Amino acid sequence: MSNQPPLAAADLQKTQQGNQVARTPEQTLVGFMNQPAMKSQLAAALPRHMTADRMIRIVTTEIRKTPALAQCDQSSFIGAVVQCSQLGLEPGGALGHAYLLPFGNGRAKSGQSNVQLIIGYRGMIDLARRSGQIVSLSARVVRAGDEFSFEYGLEENLIHRPGENEDAEITHVYAVARLKDGGTQFEVMTTGQVNKVKAQSKASGNGPWVTHWEEMAKKTVIRRLFKYLPVSIEMQKAVVLDEKAESDIDQDNASVLSAEYSVLDNAPGE
Questions:
Q1: Among 55, 73, 166, 233, which is most exposed with the fewest C-beta within 10 angstroms?
Q2: At what angle do helices 121-128 and 213-226 cross, to 10 degrees?
Q3: Is the pTM of this model over 0.85?
Q4: Nearest 5 degrees, angle CA 72-CA 78-CA 79?
Q5: What whole-number distance in Å separates Cα of residue 45 and Cα of residue 214?
């Protein structure tokens, strides 16, 4: 896994010199992503189960789906793609692993909007699957009318029996992890607690918080649960990046603390 900084926007400008055919920002960015130097950098960052060509195809699709990405600061965009590559996650709504979203005006040195990497709850579970200390991980919502109770303390317990109304209002969201040593850890949040996290996010008014609230709520409670579990370096970096993205702090300044190596398996049905 490479720690090299993303290619600078100046490199992109150099590639445009001598090009007599006017190209759209989308064409320019896609062309830059396909250059050997960029492919080499992505290949060095990606884990073995992914290729640079596949990542570029996925990113190209995201640019076409969200043209505003091509108008953002190029270094910011490349940095977000490299971060996504280092985590081995595929951006876009197809898998719900991660999202590339434009944010703000003038935050980048170029005066353009920045691109932020937002990690989805399925991305969290996918990262968790690559460990060995956690047997299963699941996240679920609780709706009005469900039988639901939980208690913390010396004898922690959680009971959830879903009702028949799948359209009832969501009241809680929870995540449960079964550990390799036989233990179980869970975390519960109310919708009010989740919405407080949403309110602090730069993406509260657009992106997955608007289109996929339930998935973002699950991701939020999983992220909180991971603070009590043995997690991998990748997982800890993902949590740090995600918390930075939810706040108003640039992801470039995210720090990563040391942690144990572990991984999670997906729970059945997740």
A1: 166
A2: 40
A3: no
A4: 105
A5: 31
